[in-house]
Amino acid sequence: MKNIPNTFGSMVFNDAVMQLRLPKHIYKSLKKTMSEGVHLDVDVANEVANAMKEWAVEKGATHYTHWFQPMTGATAERHDSFISPAGEGQVIMEFSGKELVRGEPDASSFPSGGLRATFEARGYTVWDTTSYAFVKDGTLCIPTAFCSYSGEALDKKTPLLRSMEALDRQALRVLRLFGNKTAKRVITMVGAEQEYFLVDKEMYLKRPDLVYTGRTLMGARPPKGQELEDHYFGSIKPRVSAYMKELEEELWKLGVYAKTRHNEVAPGQHELAPIYNTANIATDHNQITMEQMKVIANKHGMACLLHEKPFAGVNGSGKHNNWSINTDTGVNLLEPGGTPSENAQFLLFLVAVIKAVDEHQDLLRLSVATAGNDHRLGANEAPPAIVSMFIGDELLSILEGLESGEGYTGGDRPQMEIGVTALPHFPKDSTDRNRTSPFAFTGNKFEFRMPGSMLSIAGPNIVLNTAVAEALRQFADELEQGSDFKSDLAALVKRAFSAHKRIIFNGNNYSGDWVAEARLRCLLNLGTTVDALPEFISQKSIELFAGHGVFTELEVRSRYEILVEAYSKTLHIEALTMVDMVKGMVIPACIDYQNDLARLLSRKRESGAGYDASLEDALLRRCSKLSADLLERLSRLEDALSEPGLGEGMDALECAEYYRDGVLAAMSGLRAVVDRLETIVAKRHWPLPSYAELLHSVV
Ligand code: ADP
Ligand code: MG
Hints:
The protein is an alpha+beta fold.
């Protein structure tokens, strides 16, 4: 790619294109809609649609789609062509304002958690004017929100936008108290670092587990894993490098700020990080990134694995959600400032986040809970399932100093009084390097490290924005009533810190001691998705979301149902895939190998020449013993899957519990035997590429 600035965003109907192609008054009213959410009138929509179509056709588009994010966590699109009959067998290319603004996909097959029975299949999509349209693979994609006819959100974008508004509303109240009259909006900014694995496509296709479930359901430990830690930041192999280059070029054309690329800890594992953007655009862009990662890997003869834990015993993949709150005037409210008043404001926002994370640990945990991520959290490479916060020693001493009234003694300023003294300067690096914390302050933003690599970042950001909005609401309520702002503020910061400091932990989150310590602090430890999900429908959660207009109670309940069912379905598919693989691949391999051994053994014995047959004999004994175990474990899994009442009589949560305690346990029992057999059966009989082959498959 020669001229990156010229190619960047070349497939995006962005501000520059709009200015160039729209009449001035149309451009102005569209901008008003974009920045202030003012309703778009029909004439404007028609003009915009036409300009968009002309532009898209020049970019090679023949179709358009309302691109949306249903509750599956992926994106959905239905393509319609621009053609319209023009008489005499001719067509013209047309696209109306109505088609731009609103679509009606037949949405009956998207999960709605009972919000919309299939017989009333209609939902509709509405253009999200805050995220630019783009052309991808010959189709004009219009980012949209997806709702039911009665107005319930059926997607991930609508509640994300609502949560951003909730935070905006409450943060502005707080800013006004500090005398800020210039900020018009407070915006959530997000940068999502994306980890992924690349494996050779031919090998990938030989593993039904990877193809159907995204992870390996069996596989013995490789002789060379990640023990040497020689992969992290290591030099990038030419084949991977060619892939990364093409990926970045495609992302740049689509307006995604792909910035950083490097190898990760495990062999075959890599990371891409973009420059941060507003939360909803970051979410759209992360979806585009994941999709392009797969498409381009395929072109390069590879498969991109986005599962949270594709290989047992090897690092999984996460998605670090870097989050900050900023004003439209460009001030990052999580950046410690240079003046006493700026710092008082910073401390208030800081304790608001501390309070939010402590009070809504359950929801943060829940926002990253999936069957896949359960394998990753707490596996000594990712944070445990316990939510805690890292804020660094300096900030902790400052807050402790304020709490005790003794001031901050770690720096050059012995006394620290909120709103009177400036914060001591602390170097950014000192807050940056606790890699074990689920939720770390990294100088001017928080990094939430629990999300798994496959997750849509909408969920965690919805929770984060809403929880912080609630903390700020309570603060604003109190401070607006007060009489002496400065002393009220100091008292509030102190009190909030005292009440919520148990959530702060600056030590090693991977250590066993932390689990015990967290228990003493009464922090939640929701080990599995099934433990976490019920927290979503607690009274506290419903009040939080409904109170800020993010989810109605009905929306919370429907989403809960979808999540519970998704858990059971994922495990069901995994279990069936495993049964198929064992019956169709593993058992025949065992039989073939035993057949070889038995034949040789009998030939040696029959020959009467006194050959030593102890090796064949020992291997055959071990193999037949393990085969018997295999059969036994296979039957247990099959029995678990045919549990009477499963799916019918059982309530959805009971069913999910059953999958976790019954089916998953039976799967690991079976896996253990298969993995032992893999180390015994001759390689030429073993039908599956091994871990070593997969992890080092891209050379
Ligand atoms: P790391 O040390 O984790 O690699 P970086 O500073 O490189 O951290 O940032 C990682 C991610 O955080 C990038 O996507 C970056 O754009 C994003 N980021 C940086 N500053 C902010 C901010 N103020 N708000 C949100 N995200 C940010
Ligand atoms: Mg990071």
